[in-house]
């Protein structure tokens, strides 16, 4: 058995605002949006994210991601310059001892999004 890829499914109570954030702030494209299902699929380069409104079987109060989504990139400084003034910053662009230059922001639901680039 082989796992081929993972696609985050983010739950939100306002799917239109979340689509707007990922499209207009982060540059994703909305591939598919089925309003009646409360579901959307977004893509940017090699990355896919799905969005969903809460299902009836979920005990849902508000969006919550206990971790983060980490995006590896080939130009973290360019992304930092585009996002730093348009988003809520968790931590600014920094080079870490473990060989990554990275920063983190929050999306419109409070989910932490980290962007990093390996350094030599």
Query: Distance between the terminal alpha carbons, to the nearest Å?
Result: 34 Å
Shape: globular
Helix content: 10-25%
Characterize the quaternary organization of these chains: single chain
Q: CATH topology, anyone? A: 2,3-Dihydroxybiphenyl 1,2-Dioxygenase, domain 1
Could you state the order of secondary-structure elements as H and E? Answer: EHEEEEHEEE
Uncertain segments are none
Instruction: Look at the structure and give the mean pLDDT.
Output: 92
β-sheet strand percentage: 35-45%
Fourth-tier CATH superfamily name: 2,3-Dihydroxybiphenyl 1,2-Dioxygenase, domain 1
CATH secondary-structure class = Alpha Beta
* Biggest beta sheet attributes: 4 strands, mixed
If you had to describe this structure to a student in words, what would you say it looks like?
The chain is α/β, with parallel strands linked by helices and 120 residues long. It has one domain (9-118): 2,3-Dihydroxybiphenyl 1,2-Dioxygenase, domain 1 (Roll), CATH 3.10.180.10. It has two helices and eight strands, in the order E-H-E-E-E-E-H-E-E-E. It has helices at 15-25, 76-83, and strands at 9-11, 29-34, 39-44, 47-52, 68-72, 88-95, 100-106, 112-118. It has a four-stranded mixed beta sheet with strand order 1-4-3-2, covered by helices on one side. A hairpin with a 2-residue loop joins strand 3 and strand 4. The longest helix has 11 residues, at 15-25. The model has no long low-confidence stretch (mean pLDDT 92).
């Amino acid at each position: 058995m082989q796992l081929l890829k993972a696609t985050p499914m983010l739950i939100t109570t306002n799917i239109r605002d979340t689509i707007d954030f990922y499209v207009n702030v982060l540059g994703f494209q909305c591939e598919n949006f089925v309003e009646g299902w409360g579901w959307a699929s977004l893509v940017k380069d090699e990355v896919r994210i799905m969005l969903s409104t809460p299902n009836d079987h979920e005990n849902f109060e508000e969006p919550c991601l206990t971790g983060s989504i980490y995006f590896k990139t080939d130009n973290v400084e360019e992304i930092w310059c585009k996002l730093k003034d348009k988003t809520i910053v968790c931590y600014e662009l920094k080079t870490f001892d473990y060989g990554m230059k990275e920063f983190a922001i929050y999306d419109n639901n409070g989910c932490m999004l980290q962007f990093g680039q390996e350094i030599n």
